[in-house]
Amino acid sequence: MKKRVIKVQLNERSIDQAIKELNNYKKWLTDKTKEFLKALADEGVKIASVKFGQAVYDGTNDVTCSMQDRGANKVAVMAVGGATLFIEFGTGVKYPDNHPEAGENGMVRGQYGYKLGRLEKGWRYSGDPGRNGEVITEGKHAGEIHTYGNPANMSMYLTVRELEDKFAEIARRVYV
To answer: CA–CA separation, 22 vs 51, rounded Å?
Structure first.
């Protein structure tokens, strides 16, 4: 971080100069903080996009990630799409309910969406089989997709953990 020594004599001109230097430093710090938040959010969007893109998910993965400015010194990394919560917290009783923040966010395995995740034999749907959905080839449901759901990919949860690890490095890079 930029360090600066300001020497002040007890006269009007010296005090005015010190005030000017403090205001310049305040502007520098404000600008760098905005730059830091943007760099942090950009890294978060990049990490989250990769994690959601590589997620094991039966169906159409329509998740997109972006950064949103939330006012003074606040930004958010956002993930939106119909599959977002299913990818983040997982679905189906076949997979472990292992997302550390599922309960505090009201996500109980098998109890959200259409509540099909509680069916032990899985369920079927029409559309994209995704990474491991099985296309039904015979019978009256031929062409539909059978699934047991998907594991909790924890894309945003793991993005936060990675950003915590990169926080100091990004700060050092920005506040030079």
So the answer is: 43
Q: Give the pairing type, strands 64-69 and 123-125.
A: unpaired
Q: Over the stretch 15-37, which tens digit does the pLDDT of each residue have?
A: 999 999 999 999 999 999 999 99
Question: In sequence order, which ranges of the chain are alpha helices (DSSP H)?
Answer: 12-53, 84-89, 155-174
Backbone region of residue 59 per phi and psi (left: phi > 0; alpha: psi in -120 to 50; beta: other values): left
Task: Sort 12 into a burial class: Cβ within 10 Å, 0-12 / 13-18 / 19+.
Answer: exposed
Q: Is 17 helix (H, G, I), strand (E, B) or coil?
A: helix
Pairing of strands 123-125, 145-147: antiparallel
- pTM of the predicted model as reported, rounded to 2 decimal places: 0.86
Q: What is the spatial distance between Cα 103 and Cα 163, in angstroms, rounded to a whole number?
A: 23
- More reliable by pLDDT, 67 or 72: 67
- The region, left, alpha or beta by phi > 0 then psi within -120 to 50, assigned to residue 148 is alpha
b or e along 16-40 (b: 16 or more beta carbons within 10 Å of the residue's beta carbon)?
eeeeeeeeeeeeeeeebeeebbeeb
CA–CA gap between residue 36 and residue 165 (Å, rounded): 15
Q: Structure tokens of 149?
A: 């759901």
Averaged pLDDT, 123-128: 92
